[in-house]
Amino acid sequence: MKDRTYVALGDSITAYRNNVKVYMEWLLEERETLGFRRMINNGIGGWNTLHLLDKLEERCLQHQPQFISIMLGTNDHAIYKGKEEPAVSLDQFKFNLCEIVRQIRVSAHERGNAAPYILLMSPPFIVTETNSAGTQASQTRLLNYVRAVHEMSVELDTGYLDVNAITAEATLHDGQLYRDNYTDQNDGVHLNSAGQKWLVPFIRQICIEQRA
């Protein structure tokens, strides 16, 4: 099983960032133990599910991975300056996730490969506020997207990791503590190295379970 490829998909919380050791970097240190030949981080800053759906071949399918993690929802739920609704509605979000999973499985079948393991991850806890750019973030609204990820994981028979619960419970839902100690540049959104490290043992365990 050491010829396996892992592709991580997501937004800027997954993507490589300056001065932050993201969860894929922690996991890369254990690549051989986890049984992967290649581990590809294809998180892209600013992306939501519409972006991923549009670029799925380029960012994922062409690599023919055996293990795929998807963590999106933060940008989908955001209400940007001058807008009154989230960037991606909840119904559209669910449809996009369903279509992403469907296309992954169809692609594997058409290429003569076994269906890959897909891990749907809920977006992390977020501090409720309007930032300097006028973007409205809301943990209450985000929880609707978190529930949608779980619902889709059950409906589509994928893996599931509740990153929102992991990150919220680590600081007892204390937004100020979370912002000051576990987000990059104290922005209340992007996990810093310490926050990213919270995810590692959970993903590691799933990788090991799927290695057999």
TrEMBL record:
<dbReference type="GO" id="GO:0016787">
    <property type="term" value="F:hydrolase activity"/>
</dbReference>
<dbReference type="Pfam" id="PF13472">
    <property type="entry name" value="Lipase_GDSL_2"/>
</dbReference>
<feature type="domain" description="SGNH hydrolase-type esterase">
    <location>
        <begin position="8"/>
        <end position="197"/>
    </location>
</feature>
<dbReference type="InterPro" id="IPR036514">
    <property type="entry name" value="SGNH_hydro_sf"/>
</dbReference>
<dbReference type="InterPro" id="IPR013830">
    <property type="entry name" value="SGNH_hydro"/>
</dbReference>
<keyword id="KW-0378">Hydrolase</keyword>
<protein>
    <submittedName>
        <fullName>SGNH/GDSL hydrolase family protein</fullName>
    </submittedName>
</protein>
<dbReference type="InterPro" id="IPR045136">
    <property type="entry name" value="Iah1-like"/>
</dbReference>
